[in-house]
Amino acid sequence: MSESQAPAQTVEDPFAGRRRNWRVRSPKTLVATLSILLLFIVLGIFGSQIAPEDPFKLNLVGRLQPPFFEAEGSLDHPLGTDDLGRDTLSRLIYGARISLLAIAMVIPLATVIGSILGILAGWFGGWTSRVIMALVDLQLAMPAILIAVFLRAIWEPSLTNVVIVLVFALWATFARLVRGETLGLKEREFVLAARTIGANDLRIMVRHVLPSLVNSIVILATLNVATVVIAEAGLSFLGVGIPQDSISWGIMISQGRGVIVTAWWLVTVPGIAIIVVSLVVNLFGDWLRDFLDPQLRNIQR
Amino acid sequence: MSRHWTKLRRTKLSRRSLLSASARAGVGAAGLALVGCGGDDDDDQQQQTVAQAQPEQEQQQQAMQQQQQQQAMQEQAQQQAMQQQQEQQAEQQAQQVEQQEQAQQEEELDRSTAQEEAEVSEVDLDAELVVGYGSFPPTLDITTAGGGGGQGASNNLHFAALAAYNSGRVIQAEGGFGDWEFADDLSSFRWKIKEGVTFHNGEPLNAESVQFYYERILGRAEYNPDFESQLRARAGWMGDITVVDEYTVDIAMDTPFVDAPEQSGGINFGLLPKQYIIDNGDDHFANNPIGCGAYQFMSWVPDQEIRSQRFENFAFDHDAPFQYKAGWAKYITGRYFPEEQARAAALEAGEVDIAYRISPDVAKQFEDRDDFKVIALPDVRVMALELPVNQSLDPITGEENPWRDVRVRQAANYAIDADAIIENLLTGTEERAYSPFPAGYDPPIGNLPGQYNYDPDKARALLEEAGQIGFAFTITLPTGLWTADRIWMPAVQQMLNDVGFQVEIDYADFGNALALIRNNELPHPFVFNQAGVSSGAPLGPAFAYRLVTTIGAPYSHAQEGDDFLPEFSEFQALIEEANAEFDQQRANDLYYQASVISYENAFQVPLFGLPHLYAVTPQILYNEYYDTSTGLNAIYAQKLKA
Amino acid sequence: MRSELGATAVGRFLRSIAVVFGVVTIVFFMSRGAGDPVSRLAPIDATQQEIEEAKERYGLNDPMIEQYGRFLWDIVRLEFGQSFRATRPATDVVGERLVATIQLGAAGLFVAFAIGIPLGIVAAVRRGGATDIFSRIGALFGQAVPNFWLGLMLILFVALYIDFIPTGGRTSPQSIILPAITLGSFPAAAVMRFTRSAMLDTLQQDYIRTARAKGLSERAVLFKHALRNSMLAVITLLGLQVGNILSGAIIVETVFAWPGLGQLIIQSIVATDYPVVQASVLLTSVWIVFINLVVDVSYTFIDPRIRTGAI
User: Which of A155, B272, B601, C9 is deepest in the core (most CB within 10 A)?
Assistant: First the structure.
């Protein structure tokens, strides 16, 4: 699990916007990326209406049917069935919900907490900064998975645990980024001007500093989406994520690994889903960065 | 089948025999009866069916029909044999005890050669046998290692006990290091210890070691009174333990305890060297075990490997008829692979000779191949869902406990299609259970009338009638030891949900869950294996009901002070009466009546027996011996010469 | 100058102490929240009275603050109590595993840097070239493939076909190859991206232009100046990756049967063996803090310009 990896890299990458040639540039790629993203969101929200079958329905006689393109497969179960005869496609669609839910809860929480602490640290400096940066260090010293393991001991497995763990893992990257940018903004003319007319700290932070940070925050948030998807899968794999009898892509992989030799699709299908969503979200993040940051766009041109 | 054994044992008790020789002989006769009854032969057949799936069989249906025919014929033959055997046995019982003993031993030897076992000359006695385990013990001290992974990888190799189970799964002195007798008034129980036995470090086995062993478990040993072992609960019946002479120990009993031989000399009670432990301490011992088992410990790296070598001064040799044969391979190395597919891959890559405890699905990977084979051993126990019927309130909602309603309990029974699970998720050879005693148990407790066969509509109707559609509860499943637990349990869960329950499964650590159950901290249903019997195993009703379902049993919801259902009190009274009944026929009648009550009131949801599956290289032969909780015991595995 | 650096190092050290203190506090309150260890420790047939006595003996009836103080004192002495499972001191149980995990972690980091740095350099120097595009696609995948999946795939498609490489365990030197690759693949992507951008950054600097203007060969410019300076930035990544590597190790150890701390943590948590969990979590955290401290301090000494930086 490397929750803080991609973001850490992003934050400290001063040439982030400049270095990509392979990216969403043509409208076609953008449309494709957006369509996949949209599909993911629709599946996550309306999965129960879309899924062709009840994803919990047992069919012990028809277990481990391969996908339709294999000799023994059929279109009744386009992506085959799992070890209890449950329809893989329907489970995949349902599984999107957990990933989406995790994203929908983790990203806003981590963003808000991290950004507030980051601005405070950057703006006030001194002890405020020291304390907050010590908290950042604390996060670094306690890998998320250890927190997950501990929470598993205290509470029954649930999505809430996963959310707490991932928020804990991600807020610090936002704090680091926002603090750094705030430090820079503090010396900018418009901020200094606001100060000289006697605006109070809170007002300046909310009215002047924050709007300038929004772009960077949104970009970082987007890039962390993929991290959430992968981290949820990893936690579920270890049995410290969501309950074993709910459906998520991570749990699907975890349950399918016992028959990986005879039923390759049970691990591969959700695995590909995770990879595709991560890729697409990353590409979208790159595009968003270019789009939101005209300065970088200009440099590139 | 077990009637004779139980009867004999009870006869022995009722006669209050002091002579261990006669006790041994009695049990011996039972062993013979069992072997003759075909119980174990049946197992063998199952073993072959799974082990030698023939890839060239193109017309599978035909083949299956053939197999079924064969099976039917064999069953017939077995039944005939059984009848004959019973007649024979009646004669034998009339005969002199010495003759019986002799006959039994002969039969034992015949059986060994009939099984999958090679001549000594074919076996590579210098071989190193590498076994890939899915779980490993946390310590190597048999008293703290717990069941599960420790059993096969360490306990069974390094330690030996006072008594042993023979291949008919009867506890007996022969083959162990002791011999027992009950005092006339049943106020005490005596172990006579075999002379001349030494531990791996040369320390002699004597009365002092045995006394020390029990006192250590009980926290009475002076060197460390704080020592704690899970075995303490099993030794709770022991009063004062006295050394009578160098090779005799007496254990005082508050109340006569029928199972004293099992519960002080059985497989978990591996003997320990007193002086070594006192000199080196418990911590050292937990890392450097010394026993008197067939293998002596060489080295271990926690969660990596345990290496052992054959104990050349072991008290038995390869011809020993009972459990403690000398080891066949010179070295046994246990390796730890927590991921099942990694374990299978290790076998495939030639890194291990045996992939221990695999799931039916992984077994199928190896079944169709020439370069590997699968061994399937039936477990001696029956899985069942234990229901909390004697608590008036639901601990979660605080309302009336829905399990009090017999319709809810019956609904749970009707809801589960155990046959489909056996057929599709397991190997297809498991026995469907209807009580703690599977079909074939005699008296026919397994063949109760009007069995709850799968009927989801009826289940839903019953639940609706009871007004409990949507009844939400949790089932605790101790995981990690029982075959394919994460495969059949979700199926059970979904089947219950399909008829209107709302079930959550708590996949708990095995030892942890057991502790919770024993401490009576699980208010909701849990899955347990009932120490019942598989074909041929004579762990009778007394043993089963001492462990589960009855009041105060370690793995039962029913505790003193509960609000007992009238039917349950009736059931309990019958069990108690049966437990105290020395006349076998009468006792069995009582058990039968009790089981009928339990069944009609659906106090539990019996499921099925589970197999133990192993994939091995073709050079490995394995001969089954009784082994309480693990199935395969590497001591008996033979690696053939190349 | 020197004394100022020393002061920075001391300040950094104090901050590390504060962080460790924070970890200890979190672990204490989490484990107290996790329930009463006595019911687990007590023998099966213990009576209520015996349990109460045991609680008294372990001081669980004392005020929280007193328990906390004792916990701190225990930790200073590396006393974590007896492991429930192994019935031995938790410190010993954890200590045995530390070496295996550090070995795996170091190997994983080595893989990450050995793959990431050269690719990053080439990608930066030949920007837009085949290596650049290829390695950045690789990096995207590297960060999108779950490592437990990669591990199983490597067992099934590499270990089974190459005799030299075992499927799991830690029995021979080559045992480490597959776990290290699996563990290193994820951070390798990050290292590659970071190296690339640091390198690009350096190449834009004035002194590089100066060096070029002086007529130094491209090779000399690259290796003598650009590389040396970008590597300084890459070192900071090391500290950030240690935590990730240890997290990843927990999964990789399970897949490859590597007898390290990760497996122990998972087993202990499943068996509610809290002393071992506490000891493992604390030791892991201290280890991460220590590495970061070393990286930061050495970095400050190597390049004094950085120490006031916002990173």
Answer: B272
